[in-house]
């Protein structure tokens, strides 16, 4: 805090101070500055640098560092527009975001309602248990899911499906209800996509549950009781009391988790590196691949800049419509 | 206020922080141990209510059914963790064989954990532990203590701990003052910076991978690759927006009147920080501690790109075990390694669940 106090040389300092765009009451800025500088130098600066690379024909790290790359303007972006792989990647990324978001919202609302229900005993412990996935490292949980989705005949899900088949056949169910095991979860396009979505949902639901539960707990009990006295059924109460209360938080959490889904890298990379045959390359995987495997640094930078742009839009939407920055302007 | 005084204050608040985390773990344990008793009381009361006709049998049955439904759901959701824990106990027996999803309980053994501790690079390279040695009359005073006998050197856990301590020190040093300033002070650009931070809250790991291409070039240009210290700073930088925002929201909920009252009683500015702000934000600080720790502990793609093998932290080692073969993972060893890697954090996280919930619900407050 010593740095915030004026030193000697008062007259010169006073003149300097009056020239500066801030006054001594702004010393709070000094507390914020170190973090801002660190953040800018490690996060913002690389983004600008990435943008610069996207304007060059850099092919590998050495050509960026050694200055062997030339500015080629927006040629990389032009190439992207005509690149079918870019369109595939964008399409599958948006599909991934949309599908996993819908499943997430329904699952999380369901869990939150159940674990906030008066009739469930020990719900606090259950809530503590269901948000545990958030506490484990992504590489751990994602690899575990890959193991469960194993293509092998005796992989976990294939075994479960096999048991299900046996059970259904013992009931002499029609053939249409049976699964064709083993399913190649990681080697088929839509099978892999299904595996991605399942894992993504599992990774993201705890965050949503936390937010929805806290919104539910803010609903006064009297509101429910009043609705009950008025003869509202469970469904009607959900629509008129619960839904308005959780709408805002759900929207907020949706935008945030959608932004994270959009940047999902680990799931496709660990599962099958965006395969089979590059059909499931989410946008970040696509960019990373172009740089690491194909030595197209310039193109890769352009892809990633596009990706960052979309995430920026998400976050802007969150601030603008999701009330994310509420509390910034108050006081 | 002398610098020694504030240093002592800092040390005291660091100790208090650790104590509060330990306290949370203990409270959780006590709650868990006493849970069966509370459950028994609940059952007794339900039986009593049915006997005296206060509740109908159907009413009780509905509660039981709902609870069972909740339990079943929890079990399904946590199935992957359960599966991998059983897998870690089955070193030697083949997973994915005909015997079913879970390995045969009669073959459970701790072989995989033994492998992690005494053969993998987790603690020491190749698990070569060495031994402690007392040195008499060496250069470091009369009696000193050193670790001797490990020919291969310290392993990944030390790299991880080093990175995390840098991340924690840098992160806390920047997050706590900034959160205070955002919460209590008015200054030029405050709103704009805060908006900027909020924009970046959700962009953690994803953004670093996106900028990896640029990062690698920049780090190479400035000769910063293979530097654990810089990597720790980098993780701290990524953790700053979210955690500053989180802690600021937490501090906003402390009434300003507390500080004013302390000021009236003659407390100096630093006293109010030490006696009012820090103690009251302890739960928030604990959450930030967890998140900043996780930021340094879990990341591996940047680490793998920037570091050379002798400096790999645990997360990269874990990834390497996971991808030893292209599609085959030595599951039992992977599971044991991952459990030792993740469990300490998961336990603290579980204990601090209440604070995490409070902290994370910051944006959903309006409703």
Using brief descriptors, characterize the structure shown.
heterodimer, A: 331 residues, mainly alpha, MetI-like fold, disordered N terminus, B: 367 residues, 16 helices, 2 strands, globular, disordered C terminus
Describe the structure in your own words:
The complex is a heterodimer of chains A (331) and B (367). Among the domains of chain A are: 70 residues, no CATH class; 152 residues, MetI-like (MetI-like fold, Orthogonal Bundle). Chain A has 14 helices and no strands. The radius of gyration of chain A is 26 Å and the shape is flat. The N terminus of chain A is likely disordered. Helices cover 68% and strands 3% of the residues of chain B. The C terminus of chain B is likely disordered. Chain B is built from 16 helices and two strands. A two-stranded antiparallel sheet of chain B has the order 1-2. The longest helix of chain B is centred in the N-terminal third of the chain and has 49 residues. The chains are: A mainly alpha (331), B mainly alpha (367).
């Amino acid at each position: 805090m010593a740095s915030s106090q004026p030193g000697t040389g008062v007259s010169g300092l006073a003149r300097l101070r009056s020239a500066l765009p801030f006054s001594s009451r702004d010393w709070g800025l000094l507390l914020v500055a170190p973090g801002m500088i660190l953040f800018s130098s490690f996060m913002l600066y690389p983004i600008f640098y990435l943008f610069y690379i996207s304007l060059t024909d850099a092919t590998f790290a050495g050509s960026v560092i050694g200055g062997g790359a030339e500015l080629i303007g927006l040629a990389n972006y032009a190439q992207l527009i005509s690149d079918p792989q870019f369109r595939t990647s964008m399409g599958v990324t948006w599909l991934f975001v949309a599908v996993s978001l819908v499943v997430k919202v329904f699952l999380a609302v369901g869990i939150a309602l159940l674990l906030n229900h008066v009739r469930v005993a020990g719900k606090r412990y259950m809530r503590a248990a269901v948000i545990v996935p958030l506490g484990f490292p992504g590489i751990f949980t994602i690899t575990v899911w890959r193991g469960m989705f194993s293509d092998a005949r005796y992989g976990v899900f294939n075994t479960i499906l096999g048991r299900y088949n046996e059970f259904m056949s013992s009931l002499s169910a029609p053939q249409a209800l049976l699964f064709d095991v083993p399913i190649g979860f990681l080697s088929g396009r839509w099978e892999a996509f299904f595996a991605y979505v399942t894992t993504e949902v599992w990774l993201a639901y705890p965050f949503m549950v936390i937010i929805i539960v806290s919104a539910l707990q803010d609903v006064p009990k009297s509101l429910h009781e009043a609705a009950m006295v008025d003869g509202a059924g469970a469904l009607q109460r959900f629509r008129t009391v619960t839904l308005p209360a959780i709408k805002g938080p759900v929207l907020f959490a949706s935008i945030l988790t959608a932004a994270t889904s959009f940047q999902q890298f680990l799931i496709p990379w660990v599962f099958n590196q965006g395969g089979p045959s590059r059909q499931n390359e989410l946008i970040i995987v696509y960019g990373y691949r172009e740089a690491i495997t194909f030595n197209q640094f310039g193109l890769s930078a352009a892809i990633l800049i596009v990706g960052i742009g979309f995430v920026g839009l998400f976050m802007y939407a969150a601030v603008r419509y999701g009330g994310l920055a509420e509390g910034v302007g108050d006081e | 206020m002398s610098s020694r005084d504030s240093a002592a204050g800092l040390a005291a608040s660091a100790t208090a922080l650790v104590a509060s985390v330990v306290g949370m773990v203990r409270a959780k344990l006590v709650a868990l141990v006493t849970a069966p008793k509370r459950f028994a009381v609940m059952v007794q009361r339900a039986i009593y209510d049915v006997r005296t006709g206060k509740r109908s049998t159907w009413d009780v049955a509905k509660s039981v059914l709902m609870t069972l439904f909740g339990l079943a759901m929890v079990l399904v959701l946590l199935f992957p963790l359960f599966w991998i824990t059983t897998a870690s106990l089955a070193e030697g027996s083949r997973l994915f064989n005909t015997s079913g999803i879970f390995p045969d309980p009669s073959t459970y053994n701790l072989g995989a954990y033994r492998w992690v501790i005494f053969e993998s690079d987790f603690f020491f390279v190749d698990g070569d532990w060495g031994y402690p040695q007392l040195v008499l009359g060496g250069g470091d005073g009369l009696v000193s203590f050193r670790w001797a006998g490990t020919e291969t050197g310290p392993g990944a856990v030390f790299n991880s701990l080093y990175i995390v301590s840098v991340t924690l020190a840098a992160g806390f040093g920047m997050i706590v003052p900034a959160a205070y300033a955002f919460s209590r002070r008015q200054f030029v650009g405050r709103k704009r910076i805060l908006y900027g931070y909020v924009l970046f809250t959700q962009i953690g790991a994803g953004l670093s991978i996106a900028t990896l291409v640029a990062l690698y070039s920049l780090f190479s240009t400035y000769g910063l690759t293979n530097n654990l210290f810089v990597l720790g700073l980098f993780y701290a930088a990524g953790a700053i927006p979210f955690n500053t925002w989180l802690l600021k929201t937490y501090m906003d909920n402390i009434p300003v009147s507390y500080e004013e009252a302390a000021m009236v009683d003659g407390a100096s500015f630093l006293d109010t920080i030490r006696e009012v702000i820090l103690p009251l934000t302890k739960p928030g600080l604990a959450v930030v501690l967890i998140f900043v720790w996780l930021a340094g502990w879990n990341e591996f793609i940047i680490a793998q790109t920037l570091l050379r093998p002798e400096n790999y932290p645990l997360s990269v080692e874990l990834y390497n075990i996971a991808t030893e073969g292209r599609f085959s993972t030595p599951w039992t060893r992977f599971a044991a390694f991952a459990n030792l890697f993740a469990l300490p954090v998961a336990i603290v996280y579980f204990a601090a669940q209440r604070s995490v919930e409070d902290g994370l619900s910051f944006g959903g407050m309006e409703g």
